[in-house]
Amino acid sequence: MLEVGTGYIGLTDPDWYSFLAAKPHIDEVNFWQPHGGRAFRAIKKDEPFFFKLRAPYKAIVGFGFFQRFENLPAWLAWDCFGESNGAEDMDTMLRNIVRLRGEEATYSKRIGDFEIGCIMITAPVFFPQNEWITPPNDWAKSGIQQGKTYPLTSGEGKRVFEECLERARKGNKYWNVQPIPSKVAEPQERYGSPVIIHPRLGQGIFSLEVRDAYNGACAVTHEHSAPVLEAAHIKPYSQGGEHLVNNGLLLRRDLHSLYDRGYVTVTPDYIFQVGNSLRDEFKNGRSYYQLSGERIALPSHELLKPDKNLLDWHSHNIFKG
Fold first, then answer.
1. Domain ranges of the chain
2. CATH number for region 2-199
3. Could you tell me the pTM of the whole model?
4. Partners of 195 in the beta sheet?
5. C-alpha distances out from residue 93 to 21, 26, 49, 74, Å
6. φ, ψ for residue 52 (rounded to 5)?
7. What phi and psi, each to the nearest 5 degrees, are found at residue 33?
8. Which is it for strands 48-53 and 6-12: parallel, antiparallel or unpaired?
9. Measured between alpha carbons, how far is 142 from 161 in angstroms, rounded to an integer?
């Protein structure tokens, strides 16, 4: 049961909204800020974040649930979130950011070698124009540049939240949340103001949380160079694996590719193994076989360590041996 007391209404670029609203299955978005440095602390994890279009539009056009804020290199924001940044490709995203920063498009800017603020929202849902919601009646007529928090237990905040929930639940909208039916009957006094949903994480947030869990180093080689590191799913998402840290490994890009294709695995006792198939198929692999038999580095928190059942699943279903 999520105890939600506050929501935040953020000003949204119409092009960002239009691009994402046209996508059929978006499970997270990066609500980026052109300039890094200023942390976002207006609401807590899992509290609602509402998307309000900038002038001349006066409407709330969707919402999601805040998960985390981080200043990231723009290139990493693209690597993690891709089109969920609200752009069709990295060049378009970078051009939009540089334009809003009012800076010259130098080489470092064109490759995304600068930081932006990333407000990461999970389980977003966007409304068609006939379902847009009227903003709070006390919203400043002159416009609020950074957004505003509202209590969700009373007044206009409660109205906006209830209207958003009603729209999200009707029709055939894709809304990446998990119902919690067992909590519906619990007394409200025990939990405060309940919201009987739980937002599921997406690929981008999963990637960043796996990087955090492994302290930004490959679990096998201990390589720290961020551009060559990727979060690998132990059980692929396409086969029912979840975007959870204990279903992830931080691997160097080449090892990630070999892991997904079954040439290497990690045993339930956390030993890295390279199969004979790599040598048999490619007559090579010397640099990988010298890593075989090594114990991988693990997250310090027990709940974040790779699930042994999932490791066993990979060894029996993906690994070629």
1. 2-199, 203-317
2. 2.30.130.30
3. 0.88
4. 2
5. 17, 17, 22, 9
6. -115, 130
7. -110, 130
8. parallel
9. 23
